[in-house]
């Protein structure tokens, strides 16, 4: 099982490190509007980013995840993302 570390580098921008067999680092951004659409009120955006990586890791290895992307890109590859992300919080 992978360990996901999320650090906010600036508002709505995050550095994510996935510690697994092979550790990887990723730069992730999210617009305030998209974050509000996906994040339950009791959670912060860092939790959304971490949940999004858990979602991705259920579908692909950390070495297959893009190194830099906006969270909205996930929906292009996995259309179920917006409807199922709350299960990962």
Explain the overall architecture:
- This protein is an alpha+beta fold and 89 residues long.
- It has helices spanning 32-38, 45-57, 74-77, 81-84; strands at 3-10, 13-19, 24-29, 68-70.
- The chain has one domain.
- A 4-stranded mixed beta sheet has the order 1-2-3-4, with helices on one face.
- β1 and β2 form a beta hairpin.
- This is Phage tail assembly protein.
What's the structural blueprint in terms of helices and strands?
Elements: E1 3-10, E2 13-19, E3 24-29, H1 32-38, H2 45-57, E4 68-70, H3 74-77, H4 81-84
Parallel strand pairs: 3-4
Antiparallel strand pairs: 1-2, 2-3
Describe the structure using short key phrases.
single chain; 89 residues; alpha+beta; four-stranded mixed β-sheet; 4 helices; globular; Phage tail assembly protein
Sheet having the most strands = 4 strands, mixed
Q: Give the radius of gyration.
A: 12 Å
In total, how many beta strands? Answer: 4
Per DSSP, the total helix count is 4
Shape: globular
Structural class: alpha+beta
Oligomer: single chain
Counted up, domains total 1
Give me the strand/helix succession.
Answer: EEEHHEHH
Helix content: 25-40%
Which ranges are low-confidence, i.e. pLDDT below 50, for 5 or more consecutive residues? none
Beta-strand percent range: 25-35%
